[in-house]
Amino acid sequence: MQDRKKSERRRDIGVLLFPHFSNLCLANAVEPFRAVNNLSGTERYRWHFLSLDGGPVTSSSGLRVQADAALSRHEGGAYLFVMPSYHFRAADTPACARALRAARGRFDRIAGMDTGSWLLAAAGLLSGRRATIHWDEQVALAERFPDVEVSGDRVVHDGDILSCGGASTTFELVLDLIEAEHGAMMRLEVAALFLHGDLAGHGDRPPAALRPGQVPDAAMALMRARIEDPLSIGEIARQLGLSRRMLEQRCMDRYGIGPQQLYLATRLREARRLAEQTGLSVAEIAARCGYADASAMSRAFRREFGVSPRQLRQRRDARDQGRATAADARTETR
Q1: Which CATH superfamily is domain 262-328 in?
Q2: DSSP 230
Q3: Whether pLDDT at 147 is above 60
Q4: Positions of the region Disordered (predicted)?
Q5: Taking the CA of residue 88 as centre, how many other CA atoms within 13 Å lie in the half-sphere pointing to its CB?
């Protein structure tokens, strides 16, 4: 019950932008949280775009973002994402260092994204800590800040200080945070929405090319490709060049459940997506998710989510109607 309460509370995020920030890094930082909000049907996360002075910030490709507030005026929250990307050395100023040191007490955790670790180090927040940065700057970071243990890892978690080495690794770091709050299945759902973890063309490579840590992702790719006509677990193992027992062990090591349960959860989450986002009948949804019997799918759906597909759709319709009514009310007051 405590874990459920933890996952249901709203988490506030500050995204600190600097001139020439990366659009891709920004999208990878917030879109996964938006997906969690959509999947859960409630606002699990809220984020604000910040700048040091509260003014607008323009990205490296010309996207202009109006900050919601200055960093000093934000009350704090779960995470502060520091995102300078390009021209980060120009942002390395005494004022920036002071603002970051002051913000540390207001946020539970601070993450240096892309080149953000440089500014965290300049503020003295990485002394004696382990961190990573974009690979182009790893040597420079180590030379400029010898008290920082610079890692070549893509993502580093060091207590309340997090870091990652670029735009794609920002997505990986955020998935880690989502998994810690909501479990491995939510991570898988969010990753699947963005096709993250699909090992394109893995079937054309010799099985030995799959590292042990890639096996669960490769299995998931096969499962997602065969939702309507499910493969047997033995066939999935065969296609990956593994024994069934080895596949089960790899999935247990990574997700805490076996491939059969993982496959079932994947099919049911596709059923939930179809119930929420389409007008398909329950029978049609069942067929598309590999069930010959709609009643069997509905029972499994209720066990997994606590509601039937029809009840979920009724909730969606009521929510959409409420939003429409609120929008009409706002229009009438103008």
Answers
A1: Homeodomain-like (1.10.10.60)
A2: P
A3: yes
A4: 308-334
A5: 26
pLDDT in tens, 78-129: 999 999 999 999 999 999 999 999 999 999 999 999 999 999 999 999 999 9
Reported as half-sphere exposure (CB side, CA atoms, 13 A), residue 213 has a value of 0
What 3-state DSSP class applies to 330? Answer: helix
CATH C-level class of 2-182: alpha beta
Tell me the backbone φ, ψ of residue 280, rounded to 5 degrees. -60, 145
For the record, the structure tokens of 118 come out as 């440089």
Instruction: Give the integer Cα–Cα distance in Å for 15 and 260.
Output: 39
Predicted structure pTM score: 0.81
Q: Report the distance separating Cα 4 and Cα 132, nearest Å.
A: 32
Q: What is the DSSP string of 173-206?
A: HHHHHHHHHH-HHHHHHHHHHTTTT--TTGGGS-
Directed axis angle between helix 215-225 and helix 184-193, to 10°?
60
Nearest to 38 by CA among 176, 256, 259, 190: 190
Q: How many CB atoms lie within 10 A of CB 303?
A: 10
Q: For residue 167, how many other CB atoms are within 10 A of its CB?
A: 20
